[in-house]
Amino acid sequence: MSTQRKVQIGLVGLGNIGRTHIRYLSTMDNVELVGVCDTVKEKADKFAVECGTDAYYSHTELFDRSGLEAVIIAVPHYDHTTISVDAFERGLHVMCEKPLAVHVNDAKKSIAAYEKAKLENQSLIFGIMFQERTLPFYKKLKDIVDGGELGRLTRVTWINTAWFRSQSYYDSGDWRATWAGEGGGILTNQCPHNLDTYQWLFGLPARISGHAHIGKYHNIEVEDEVTAYFEHEDGMIGHFIVTTAESPGTNRFEIIGENGKLVYENGKIILYKNRISMLKHLRESKSGFEGVENWYTEIPVKTGAPTGHKVVTEKFVQAILNGGGELIAHGTEGIKGLTIGNGIMLSSFKKTIIDVPFDADEYEGKLSELIKTSRYKKTRTSELESDISGSFSKA
């Protein structure tokens, strides 16, 4: 009687998101958690006992002593690069929490390390935790956009202000909401999912005009409100509006094409289907004011399938076991949403529209300057330990 092979996984980072991973890993029959790691010894020891595994206090110690073959990286953002590069140099499979990195240059380092390691092992797996790609309404939007029902896309407007965070949230953990510890605010912490979903649906814009407000509502040194305008090569424009200071927040997604309009809001996707192309109508109509006849349809969305972090990791584990396979999101895709986020901030700093791709060295230099000149001092650094599942999108 054969027994199922288990993937030997190590977890680096035991903060709130690390604990989220622990909860579902314990339910997976094809995974063995061979080590947990945190630089805070007491935390590593505590969770090692709870999980029945070994504690490590540095990621290199975990890599070199635990016997793992794959790692989940759930640490503060700047460390994603160092840990992923060290993992790939050892030939380990990597699942990285979002964002892939703080800035584009660091993302390129992780990707380069992966591509080099892949020359030795073509079956090496690199995933990124974009669990919002598993959410049914976003999957349906992807299906409709890719299916071409809307024809030529003309405008996308995404207002997503359902990211409320209190001052106590920012005061928890000495790395939060600082240029040196986190590398940014809402774009770096909450919105990597939104930025990924945007590029997943529409690709990268060709030009970005960003307007980021630093500590407008919170006592923080990074952005907590952002409005951005995108221009795509095919003529489509985009608007991206986010903040952590709005309650009640809004999540309204409008996608307009020549053949109609999609609106996702309040758990519904509505399609206003044009009877003919609006572009054809505006060229040929004899009426100066009459719009296109359109039909209102609520798009059915199946919501029963599993979603979230576990689904992403299940795909990752299956790919390891099978020597390859489909992932929810490949790690190399993480640079795309990061490019949009860095571009928004660079445009805002320069107060001008910028082209994509932009000078990644310029943005890294600006970030280094902000780190050096930062005078922000936290008044409270105790860690906020809580169930953060409510902060995840339920789209």
From TrEMBL:
<dbReference type="InterPro" id="IPR052515">
    <property type="entry name" value="Gfo/Idh/MocA_Oxidoreductase"/>
</dbReference>
<feature type="domain" description="GFO/IDH/MocA-like oxidoreductase">
    <location>
        <begin position="138"/>
        <end position="262"/>
    </location>
</feature>
<dbReference type="Pfam" id="PF22725">
    <property type="entry name" value="GFO_IDH_MocA_C3"/>
</dbReference>
<feature type="domain" description="Gfo/Idh/MocA-like oxidoreductase N-terminal">
    <location>
        <begin position="8"/>
        <end position="118"/>
    </location>
</feature>
<dbReference type="InterPro" id="IPR000683">
    <property type="entry name" value="Gfo/Idh/MocA-like_OxRdtase_N"/>
</dbReference>
<dbReference type="InterPro" id="IPR055170">
    <property type="entry name" value="GFO_IDH_MocA-like_dom"/>
</dbReference>
<dbReference type="Pfam" id="PF01408">
    <property type="entry name" value="GFO_IDH_MocA"/>
</dbReference>
<keyword id="KW-0560">Oxidoreductase</keyword>
<protein>
    <submittedName>
        <fullName>Inositol 2-dehydrogenase/D-chiro-inositol 3-dehydrogenase</fullName>
        <ecNumber>1.1.1.369</ecNumber>
    </submittedName>
</protein>
<dbReference type="GO" id="GO:0016491">
    <property type="term" value="F:oxidoreductase activity"/>
</dbReference>
